[in-house]
């Protein structure tokens, strides 16, 4: 009887492992469809259609991650999706809900980084130890670093009234600095946009650096062949506003709104989001200047 029980237990274990492997293989085989879906979304010109489709796509990825929790690529896509949905469609009307989505995106990216040695203990420890671990990461971790830093910074931005959130900012900056060191062109030169905002959104007395901010925006503009409208949007929203340069603010946002469609089909969605956000910012011009 004991021998039979052991045999049955062994068979059950094999079946469980097989089921687990089959689920993970199915997810892996489906990744080209996820990649294709993201490409199609980035090329969408109808903002309402894009907004309506994103929740279902996010839930699909969450469901796939239940079956393949260690799929690094899928977690990075989920982190990217939460960021894109929150920034493009939620935060202008519901900042707190957007903050919750940024936190979800952050958690997905941090899960990947934990597998690469950036554990919660290291993130909670001293900055020198974190820097040492970050220096050991290579190009394989760029996406996880980028989406962790991006989501983290936006979550902090929406929780500026919380001391613990502000205390986390240096860590997000360190993650994005590593992205800049490894590949400054990654995701539309997103690290340059990050540091353009980081340096331009504060006065020099509080650690800001307007010249450095402008340099980063110019680098992002160059790498995107002056076709990515979000560069001008962020420069107007953060640097021009901080410098009280109303003329540059108004001119930059007006040019975004009047810009013709780009020949780069992979940035059609983000450019249309930039156009919509430019109109929102222009309505705040008299309040800010």
Automatic annotation (TrEMBL):
<dbReference type="InterPro" id="IPR011990">
    <property type="entry name" value="TPR-like_helical_dom_sf"/>
</dbReference>
<dbReference type="InterPro" id="IPR031823">
    <property type="entry name" value="TatT"/>
</dbReference>
<protein>
    <submittedName>
        <fullName>Uncharacterized protein</fullName>
    </submittedName>
</protein>
<dbReference type="Pfam" id="PF16811">
    <property type="entry name" value="TAtT"/>
</dbReference>
<dbReference type="InterPro" id="IPR038537">
    <property type="entry name" value="TatT_sf"/>
</dbReference>
């Amino acid at each position: 009887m004991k021998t039979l029980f052991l045999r049955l237990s062994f068979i059950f274990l094999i079946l469980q492992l097989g089921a687990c492997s089959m689920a993970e293989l199915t997810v892996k085989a489906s990744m080209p469809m996820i990649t294709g879906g993201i490409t199609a979304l980035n090329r969408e010109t109808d903002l309402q259609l894009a907004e309506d489709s994103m929740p279902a796509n996010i839930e699909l990825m969450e469901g796939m991650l239940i079956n393949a929790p260690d799929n690094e690529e899928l977690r990075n896509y989920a982190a990217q999706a939460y960021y894109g949905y929150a920034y493009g469609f939620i935060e202008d009307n519901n900042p707190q809900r957007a903050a919750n989505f940024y936190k979800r995106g952050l958690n997905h990216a941090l899960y990947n980084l934990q597998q690469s040695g950036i554990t919660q203990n290291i993130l909670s420890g001293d900055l020198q130890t974190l820097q040492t671990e970050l220096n050991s990461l290579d190009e394989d971790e760029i996406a996880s670093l980028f989406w962790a830093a991006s989501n983290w910074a936006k979550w902090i931005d929406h929780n500026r009234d919380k001391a613990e959130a502000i205390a986390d900012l240096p860590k997000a900056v360190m993650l994005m600095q590593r992205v800049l060191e490894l590949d400054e062109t990654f995701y539309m030169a997103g690290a340059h946009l990050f540091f353009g905002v980081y340096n331009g959104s504060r006065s020099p007395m509080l650690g800001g650096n307007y010249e450095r901010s402008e340099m980063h925006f110019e680098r992002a503009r160059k790498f995107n062949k002056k076709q990515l409208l979000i560069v001008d949007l962020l420069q107007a929203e953060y640097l021009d506003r901080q410098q009280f340069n109303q003329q540059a603010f108004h001119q930059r946002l007006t040019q975004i709104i009047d810009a013709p469609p780009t020949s780069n089909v992979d940035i059609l969605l983000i450019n249309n989001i930039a156009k919509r956000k430019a109109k929102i910012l222009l309505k705040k011009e008299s309040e800010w200047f």
